Amino acid sequence: xxxxxxxxxxxxxxxxxxxxxxxxxxxxxxxxxxxxxxxxxxxxxxxxxxxxxxxxxxxxxxxxxxxxxxxxxxxxxxxxxxxxxxxxxxxxxxxxxxxxxxxxxxxxxxxxxxxxxxxxxxxxxxxxxxxxxxxxxxxxxxxxxxxxxxxxxxxxxxxxxxxxxxxxxxxxxxxxxxxxxxxxxxxxxxxxxxxxxxxxxxxxxxxxxxxxxxxxxxxxxxxxxxxxxxxxxxxxxxxxxxxxxxxxxxxxxxxxxxxxxxxxxxxxxxxxxxxxxxxxxxxxxxxxxxxxxxxxxxxxxxxxxxxxxxxxxxxxxxxxxxxxxxxxxxxxxxxxxxxxxxxxxxxxxxxxxxxxxxxxxxxxxxxxxxxxxxxxxx
Length: 378
Hints:
Layout (H helix, E strand, L loop, with lengths): L15 H14 L7 H13 L7 E4 L2 H11 L7 E5 L5 H8 L3 E5 L10 H12 L4 E7 L8 H11 L3 E4 L4 H6 L10 E4 L12 E4 L3 H11 L21 H12 L1 H22 L2 E2 L10 E4 L4 H10 L27 H9 E4 L7 H23 L1
Helix pairs in contact: 1-9, 2-9, 3-4, 3-8, 10-13
């Protein structure tokens, strides 16, 4: 008999029956792509949800491409440095490379797991010795927040443009005042694995409306709105009406979806707290990942959990500077990144997890943690 496997994640998108009325509208409209009525409605509803103007939001077919197009829209000199954390998913530096920039990896703070803009500003002279600085990408890891105004102020003082890669930050951006949309563009992924998943897509917000217009131009072959003359080297990054249909259906049930995520998150937190396991979950916002901190035990814990039929993962691996394609990229001291990589374990986390399954995962994790600590002090 095969051992039952507890998966790391099980995405849940809107049910077909809830999408169907929107599909019927597509059939009636016979408008399938090119910013059709459903996509425009989707963006309008997103703008309303985040309390911004419709002219301050744009969509693209995925988050990686959105980051790339935003960097291109900023007219950053080719081959200049794009500062970013190594503690991120590989899509972040790939977007910079695809925008003809060079990733430069910097360390993050242990408590926030993101870049401190004040510390970064102080380190700029040393980084400049490596080359011209073109941009910064500040990442909100696992949906954790950053202070948007602090990055607005960083750009005001230094003149260096910043993008916030808030791929998993949909709910934090809704719930937290420090994540309120500013001039600094913020990309949010709508990948199927995110709390607000619609398959493959991304949105970007910014009060800098000229930037939004330029990104829109880049998503449709370099054509400005209403013009069929390519004014820049764009691409085809539009989302179709079918993606818009899924997005509208997902927005219809967002509050129910959020409640489902929060129910799982709250119970997980209770179990982890009782077991004395440090984690990144919070009652302030919801994310689609559950990460625990087991100092210097990540690799062994993951192997032992998987041997017990519990899938686990290092979502960011050992940091992007350890990825084969980026081993020659410049970087600063990355001690915090190394510690996080050696300690951070992603546990199973998905809508529909039963309480007894959560208890099983936490019990197994706590057992491995305690066993490792006993060996350490034996």
